[in-house]
Amino acid sequence: MKALRSPRVKDSSKASTGIAGFDEITGGGLPRGRTTLLSGGPGSGKTIFGLQFLAHGVRDCNEPGIFVAFEETSNRIVANAEGFGWNLPELQPKKLFFLDAQPPPELIQAGNFDLTGMLAALGARIKEMGARRIVFDALDVLLALLSDSMEKRREIYRLHEWLLASGLTALITAKAGGDETNSFSQQPSSFVQFMVDCAVILNHGVELGVSQRNLRVQKYRGSAFDENEAPFVIGKHGVDVAISRMLGQMDAKVTTERVTSGVKRLDTMLGGGYYRGASVLITGFPGTAKTTFGGAFAEAACRRGERTLFLGFDSDATEVVRNLTSVGIRLARHMKSGLLRMISARSIAGSAETLLVLIKALAKEHEARCLVIDPVSELSKAGNAFTARGVVERLIDWSKTGGITLLCTSLLDEMPGRTDGGTPLQISTLADTWIHLNYMVQAGERNRTMSIIKSRGMAHSNQVRELILSASGVTLADIYTAGGEVLTGTLRWEKESAGRVASEVAEIAGKLKRVTLDAEEAVLEVRAKSLQTELVAKQVEKALLTRTTESQERELTRGRARVRELRGADAAIAARK
Amino acid sequence: MFRFRLYVAQDTQNSVQAVANLTAICRASLPDRYQIEVVNVLKEPKRALAEGIIMTPTLLKLAPAPIRRIVGTLGKTQLVLLALGLQTSVP
Question: What dihedral angle (degrees, nearest 10) is formed by the CA atoms of A211, A244, A291, A346?
């Protein structure tokens, strides 16, 4: 539902403001040589915007500028801006000239006046300095002195003509009510709105108890621009406008490098670990050990020598360190060495925008490669959920582009069925890896379980595993599933040991059987041998019988022949020859 | 002796009126007791800047003390007189 983004083209017809995010929204900055109107309520940041515009012009674009102050004195303005580090005094007065044009309080007005004098004076100064930019801060204060609306119109027109002729890139700031339907935009001064080429509205409101600042480009002649309201904060270096990443600008290098999660078996379940630069979400009901996962990841990162930032919103940093020591995660030494920075952000109030700016600043300061935010659901508490979602999107974009591996924990309220729609912030759709921690209540015990709901770009285990926290660390145990039961905790342990016993028994039974069979085999072998011996004996008997029979027959034959011999006497002797 | 410095923007309508009005008031209320210096900011812009002149015409009453600053065409005579301390009450 976002309007088309303006092309990110270096447009020379625009003067860059140097205000983070604004140049992107407008596709380059303010219209060069033309006038822009910046309106907003008191304290909405108009003066800072104008100053930042000029400071950037001097420091980075070689464009000297003039600041015409109608309300506050220039000394006050410069002093108030000291914290931003623009070093304004250094630029004064050659490159940055402040004109105090506050109507004196004791001023007596007798009749109409005009701005010719001021414009003439400025004209001289502009020539001298070679000024290219000018800011009229709180012009409405001056115009208010003109009682006649005709007069007002005339002076506005005079100013407009003069600005056009001068070719300066001008910014006029004016007070407006909380909304747009206010005095300044309603009557003669509404003429200003039509005369300018670009109009920006700053809004500073309170939403659900949290202050939110918004910026909106109302019009921009001759240019495409992002029409939506953009949240901004006044950060360390000035105005910081939040923009979601524009399509086609993802210049994050895609990597296949893996980083360990700190829990060995989880790495295996993920096929190596989290991807470098990925965003990991750990969700779970209160007390399911989300912080422990964050701690394990942080510890593993520090072991690798990588700078890590741990942002805790729930507990104080020292408490977290102490609590994690009880599960064998020792972070204290990494804090000492400076690799790990733990920050308790609990006391920090502010909108989700402010928190994001803070997170970015802290991460940059620490040069963090790994970032843990515990819990990220804290962001939705500050302000409304809608803006928080945008913030989370940008958080993930930013960490991905920077190659920072981000681990967020998120609370899911103990409401049934809440997990269906994902987390309140919808971060579950944005995260690359989503791990869910849960409880199983069984047989009078509460046991923790962990499962990987999704992990983009890698094959991962779909098994629910039991999460065991002990003094020796975090481990994952396989859940016992058999016969349709899912067992965890002591039941699992019982079943496991029963299983062990059963396998032992089976082994022994097997052994016994084998021995028995061996014996039978031996017995049979012996029998076979004895039969064999019998067979041989019988064969010998048979042979003997044959021999006996043969010799008997022989003898018998010889006997007969002898008898014949003896009876036949002479014939047998002749036969014997 | 009243000393005035009137900053004008050359001959814009307001400035011309201011000159005329001031002259008239002085002639009427301070005959021979006044001195008017007219500064044309268009000719001397640096001076205007240095002296903090934003609106034109601006009248500066330098003497007698206190220094008073009046902006505008000086059309409202009574008001001007009051501001200059030449009249104690508004009729």
Answer: -20
